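Continuing the batch. This is chain 6 of the set; chains 1 through 5 are on the previous pages. Same settings as before, nothing changed between runs. Recording input and output for traceability.
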Amino acid sequence: MIALPLLRAGEHVVGIADMHVSALPGDRLVTYALGSCLGITVHDPAAGVGGLLHVMLPTSAINREKARENPFAFVDTGVPALFRACYAAGARKHRMVVKVAGGAAAADERDDRFRIGQQNITALARLLHRNGVAMHAQDVGGVLLSRTLALVVGSGDVVVRSNGQEVVL
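Output for chain 6:
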């Protein structure tokens, strides 16, 4: 039997190709094992709305059917879904604070043929730029890194844990 970690009240785990949005100040949204995937947090401090998305791949063009089934798997379909869900909860685009972690290489540059981590970072940066949204902080890239990303909805604090170290974005 596998022991699952006990969640604290108000803690929501966002799995791979998953998303969660909350307007409850006591909620903490967390995602684990960000390698080449990206964890994207958005927070509107005035509305008290926050969201976390864990995307795997840069573009839904590689599998339109899968994108229809689960838009959260891709940067180009998951990020708009995240923003729409936050808007529905009362957030406004001009107040959104965006912070990102992940996008690591699976191996050194010579062996990371597909460069999914870098492709994810590039796709996100282009999408945000095209829509007039700033990326306020990031902890991205590196080689063979696994990161945990957490957002505290009430404060907007974003913490990244990797290799036993915690960094506040």
